Amino acid sequence: MAFLDALLHVSSTGTLICFLLLLLVAYLLFLRSQSDENEPPGPKPLPLLGNLLMLDVNKPHLSLCEMAKQFGPVFKVYFGPKKVVVLAGYKAVKQALVNYAEAFGDREIMPLFHDFTKGHGIIFANGESWREMRRFALTNLRDFGMGKKKIEEKIIEETCHLREEFEKFEGKPFETAQLMNYAASSVISSIVYGRRFEYTDPQLRTMVDRANESVRLSGSASVQLYNMFPFLGPLLKNWRQLMKNLHLDIEEISELVNGLHQTLNHQDLRGFVDSFLVRKQYAEDSGEKDSHFHEQNLIYTVGNLFVAGTDTTSTTLRWSLLLMAKYPHIQDRVQEEIDQVIGGRQPVSEDRKNLPYTDAVIHETQRLANIVPMSIPHMTSSDITFNGYFIKKGTCIFPLLTSVLWDEDEWETPHIFNPNHFLDEQGRFVKRDAFMPFSAGRRICLGESLARMELFLFFTSLLQYFRFTPPPGVSEDELELTPAVGFTLNPIAHKLCAVKRL
Predict the structure, then answer these.
(1) How far apart are CA 262 and CA 414, in angstroms?
(2) Count of domains for the chain
(3) What is the pLDDT of residue 253?
(4) Span 247-262, mean pLDDT?
């Protein structure tokens, strides 16, 4: 119904004519596509609409999981006129992204993704530019402390600021979203820009709020419609708002980068931007031809790092606190373990190995929350025969991470919050191969080590100091775990009480 509603909003004589012409072209292409031999199975599509009427456009990952039960781990589905091959279940996703990493390693640049970065940056890029930017980002993020003691100190400093903010509510109900976002964004800002932002800084607030809105709108039904029929863009309110946000993002990042450029000291680099500016200057001075170290790649790479470093971490932390309030007996066990192992001192990364239950709860939160359910679409870089099916070069691929994290063949209780998924009979932490919240292969999240450290330090520090409960008059059963609609799956708006522990 959301798809039909979106369609009605953009109807007019001109668009109806366009739709009729597009319908004819799509039907002819559809007839031609039937001649492809040995393609993956899938539901029969309608001309133009494809299989849209079979999908819940607000929760397409769940619709695709149901289709996988009928068509198997590799199947095709049409999002409008666009054919997509879906990979479902741990075995198929792992085999494609890891064993055939090169063939399945390109990024599908959907119209909205192209609007966002024009092929620059890291997340929505391919080819040599992507390889150069990812390599440079990984090297420099590590140089500035990602996964090391240096960044641990910055995260610990941030946990102290976050606890102080929680204390200000004096145990009364509050929304956790903004504070979690400010904390995560301050950590990534300290790496990218070389400094953290105060939570009261209006620049931080506008950047974070705008990023959150863009992530939410990117998953809306009308924007999905735009990805299928790009000519509709100017007629769609959500697309227009996204383009406005993008313009403001570029202005904001450019202003911050220019400020750093004016105070750049080659002997004392403060963060990722400084390193990029030095490398860019070297390329210009040496007459390096076709260098990928130019202003557009800098702006869009910084934007990628800021959004990715804020949204997924803060969203996972919000889920973790919501789950603790909903399941107080699990919160009890986490706090008992923290009290026994750490006591009143500040938690550090080294404590993880001595906190198996706490670590299991964090992992189980990531598994059940499933915040990037369809990953970011991939694209085949060459023709390939996979699982007995022929898949052409340039085919859009959805690695359905939901089907991995909730795989009934891999998890004992896939739809239930169960930290025992990550514990053996002696209560020791165990790794699980089907744990893929960061995806896998060539496109695995480059900030995984940073995110893992943040999740552990923020979660243990907050649980050490506070007891999380529903607001007065709300029972644990009334806390809702159905996610909000968006590109990533956030908890719906809710309030919790952070009661200081004695």
Answers:
(1) 53
(2) 1
(3) 95
(4) 95
Q: Do 243 and 217 form a contact (C-beta atoms < 8 A)? A: no
Query: At 97, which amino acid appears?
Result: L
Write down the mean pLDDT value for the chain.
Answer: 91
Q: How far is it, in rounded angstroms, from Cα 291 to Cα 284? A: 8
The residue to which tokens 């004589």 are assigned: 13
In whole angstroms, give the CA distance from residue 244 to residue 236: 13
pLDDT digits (tens, 9 = 90+) for 66-122: 999 999 999 999 999 999 999 999 999 999 999 999 999 999 999 999 999 999 999
Q: What is the pLDDT of residue 94?
A: 97
Residue 286's CB is within 10 A of a number of other CB atoms, namely: 9
pLDDT (0 to 100) of residue 435: 97
CA distance 157 to 146: 15
Owning domain of residue 25: 2-500
Q: What integer pLDDT is reported at residue 502 of this predicted model? A: 73
- Return the amino acid letter for 466: F
CATH number at residue 246: 1.10.630.10
State the number of CA atoms in the 13 A half-sphere of 479 facing the CB: 23
Contact status, residue 60 vs residue 78, Cβ threshold 8 Å: no
Distance, in Å, from the CA atom of 334 to the CA atom of 460, rounded to the nearest integer, reads 9
3-state secondary structure of 378: strand
CA separation for the pair 415, 443 (Å, rounded): 26
Q: What is the pTM of this model?
A: 0.91
The three-state secondary structure class of 482 is coil
Contact criterion met (CB below 8 Å) for 106 and 379: yes
Considering only CA atoms, give the Rg of the chain. Answer: 23
- What's the rounded Cα separation, in Å, for the pair 87 and 94? 9
Adjacent-strand bridge partners of 78: 83
Taking the C-alpha atoms of residue 224 and residue 313, their distance in angstroms, rounded to an integer, is: 24
Alpha-carbon distances of 469 from 86, 328, 369, rounded to whole Å? 39, 8, 19
* 497 annotated to a ligand binding site: no
